Amino acid sequence: MSGHGDPIPMTSRAGGALSGEAHVPGDKSISHRSLILGAMAVGETKVSGLLEGQDVLDTGRAMQAFGAEVINHGGGNWSVHGVGVGGFAEPSQVIDCGNSGTGVRLIMGAMATSPITATFTGDASLNGRPMGRVTDPLALFGTQSYGRKGGRLPMTIVGAANPAPVRYTVPMPSAQVKSAVLLAGLNAPGETVVIEKEATRDHSERMLVGFGANLSVDDSNEGRVITLTGQPELKPQTITVPRDPSSAAFPVCAGIVAPGSDVLVPGIGLNPTRAGLFTTLQEMGADLTFENMREEGGEPVADLRAKFSDNMQGIEVPPERAASMIDEYPVLSVVAAFATGKTVMRGVKELRVKESDRIDAMARGLEACGVTIEEDEDTFTVHGMGVGGVPGGGTCATHLDHRIAMSFMVLGLGTQKPVHIDDGGPIATSFPIFEDLMRGLGATITRD
Ligand SMILES: O=C(O)C1=C[C@@H](OP(=O)(O)O)[C@@H](O)[C@H](O)C1
Ligand SMILES: C=C(OP(=O)(O)O)C(=O)O
């Protein structure tokens, strides 16, 4: 939804140890894809553990506007009656994707090779984000797009009536762009090939195979070469959505920075294309352990145990790790403030085109809390002050960005003075139970 309610100022403060279990919601990336691929299959897809955050709810509503039936059975159980590849109806209203880059970019791809026209919009954050990265490759299929200057929403997409298959090398590490091209390729006859130089999250590839598409991945000198045969009949699936590692990051990092803590975060998906934060935390010397490692639904899963860590060292986070933890840099920069020495995050310029410019948002908020940072276009450095050494006391602007809001709430759990945010409202886009879950662990997070 593009309407954003009154701001919700919030405060977090150090208040002793966190303990207990944190059951985080379903994976956001997989939830979006479950609804979109369910809508493109023939018959009923059943989804349990769907993330009921606003971003995913907006995608569900969009799929209904394109003619699929999306039903909430309660308790995280949903079903989608799909209309088949090429079966989308033309929506009679503007499609409002709210705050969600994943939602709008994947849906644009999914409708781009059907002979229908749709207009997309979002909130002030989404309407400021670049869509050219998706509409450029979609144009190769014959899709037309008419947006605001700089390829911004609101934007009208005119689907290609006679799409040609495409061979496309994604110029930036982006699972959204890769996925948009693959979804468009579904309704183009012949083979669509997408090449990515750096591996990004591979949920689209795994799920397309699960839905019965003919898709192969080859590692070559060019990178990962993904070949998809167009115009399959997708078979409906029964999907159990794993718990989101990007949401798990918040209680995990809270356990690491709040003195005396011992937090268990069970059943977290550890797909290697998503797990970079946990590797990084261990390299810094955080007391993080993987318990009960297992496979669920073809994905590695573990229970994460995070304990207060008073002896972390700053490290260099290599650029080749960026894609596997792209949404976790804000909270990593918080943990880095409690380490000793510098943490240097390289190859992170994609952070500048998320819900906010995340380097700028974290830099300004950390500075307001007494932390020294350095930044250039592609690098973010945090000078650690050690446990007990971070002043806090600032009010941090969240810029309609859920991850910025949650990151600063984690910061305040270990600082000398409380940390304030101007607006916690965006948290509901990805982690609607964040406040209750954190309070359940013993965190002092209040609405002002
Ligand atoms: O494909 C996805 O589900 C996502 C891809 C990433 O975006 P980019 O593709 O822009 O890197 C990530 O930041 C986003 O939260 C979810
Ligand atoms: C970048 C994110 O989401 P999106 O691009 O879907 O808005 C995120 O959830 O951190």
TrEMBL record:
<dbReference type="Pfam" id="PF00275">
    <property type="entry name" value="EPSP_synthase"/>
</dbReference>
<dbReference type="InterPro" id="IPR036968">
    <property type="entry name" value="Enolpyruvate_Tfrase_sf"/>
</dbReference>
<feature type="binding site">
    <location>
        <position position="129"/>
    </location>
    <ligand>
        <name>phosphoenolpyruvate</name>
    </ligand>
</feature>
<feature type="binding site">
    <location>
        <position position="403"/>
    </location>
    <ligand>
        <name>phosphoenolpyruvate</name>
    </ligand>
</feature>
<keyword id="KW-0808">Transferase</keyword>
<protein>
    <recommendedName>
        <fullName>3-phosphoshikimate 1-carboxyvinyltransferase</fullName>
        <ecNumber>2.5.1.19</ecNumber>
    </recommendedName>
</protein>
<keyword id="KW-0057">Aromatic amino acid biosynthesis</keyword>
<dbReference type="GO" id="GO:0003866">
    <property type="term" value="F:3-phosphoshikimate 1-carboxyvinyltransferase activity"/>
</dbReference>
<dbReference type="GO" id="GO:0008652">
    <property type="term" value="P:amino acid biosynthetic process"/>
</dbReference>
<feature type="binding site">
    <location>
        <position position="176"/>
    </location>
    <ligand>
        <name>3-phosphoshikimate</name>
    </ligand>
</feature>
<feature type="binding site">
    <location>
        <position position="33"/>
    </location>
    <ligand>
        <name>3-phosphoshikimate</name>
    </ligand>
</feature>
<feature type="binding site">
    <location>
        <position position="327"/>
    </location>
    <ligand>
        <name>3-phosphoshikimate</name>
    </ligand>
</feature>
<feature type="region of interest" description="Disordered">
    <location>
        <begin position="1"/>
        <end position="24"/>
    </location>
</feature>
<feature type="binding site">
    <location>
        <position position="174"/>
    </location>
    <ligand>
        <name>3-phosphoshikimate</name>
    </ligand>
</feature>
<comment type="subunit">
    <text>Monomer.</text>
</comment>
<feature type="binding site">
    <location>
        <position position="176"/>
    </location>
    <ligand>
        <name>phosphoenolpyruvate</name>
    </ligand>
</feature>
<dbReference type="InterPro" id="IPR023193">
    <property type="entry name" value="EPSP_synthase_CS"/>
</dbReference>
<feature type="binding site">
    <location>
        <position position="29"/>
    </location>
    <ligand>
        <name>3-phosphoshikimate</name>
    </ligand>
</feature>
<feature type="domain" description="Enolpyruvate transferase">
    <location>
        <begin position="14"/>
        <end position="436"/>
    </location>
</feature>
<comment type="similarity">
    <text>Belongs to the EPSP synthase family.</text>
</comment>
<dbReference type="InterPro" id="IPR006264">
    <property type="entry name" value="EPSP_synthase"/>
</dbReference>
<keyword id="KW-0028">Amino-acid biosynthesis</keyword>
<feature type="binding site">
    <location>
        <position position="28"/>
    </location>
    <ligand>
        <name>3-phosphoshikimate</name>
    </ligand>
</feature>
<feature type="binding site">
    <location>
        <position position="101"/>
    </location>
    <ligand>
        <name>phosphoenolpyruvate</name>
    </ligand>
</feature>
<feature type="binding site">
    <location>
        <position position="28"/>
    </location>
    <ligand>
        <name>phosphoenolpyruvate</name>
    </ligand>
</feature>
<comment type="pathway">
    <text>Metabolic intermediate biosynthesis; chorismate biosynthesis; chorismate from D-erythrose 4-phosphate and phosphoenolpyruvate: step 6/7.</text>
</comment>
<comment type="function">
    <text>Catalyzes the transfer of the enolpyruvyl moiety of phosphoenolpyruvate (PEP) to the 5-hydroxyl of shikimate-3-phosphate (S3P) to produce enolpyruvyl shikimate-3-phosphate and inorganic phosphate.</text>
</comment>
<keyword id="KW-0963">Cytoplasm</keyword>
<dbReference type="GO" id="GO:0005737">
    <property type="term" value="C:cytoplasm"/>
</dbReference>
<dbReference type="GO" id="GO:0009423">
    <property type="term" value="P:chorismate biosynthetic process"/>
</dbReference>
<feature type="binding site">
    <location>
        <position position="354"/>
    </location>
    <ligand>
        <name>3-phosphoshikimate</name>
    </ligand>
</feature>
<feature type="binding site">
    <location>
        <position position="358"/>
    </location>
    <ligand>
        <name>phosphoenolpyruvate</name>
    </ligand>
</feature>
<dbReference type="GO" id="GO:0009073">
    <property type="term" value="P:aromatic amino acid family biosynthetic process"/>
</dbReference>
<dbReference type="InterPro" id="IPR013792">
    <property type="entry name" value="RNA3'P_cycl/enolpyr_Trfase_a/b"/>
</dbReference>
<feature type="active site" description="Proton acceptor">
    <location>
        <position position="327"/>
    </location>
</feature>
<dbReference type="InterPro" id="IPR001986">
    <property type="entry name" value="Enolpyruvate_Tfrase_dom"/>
</dbReference>
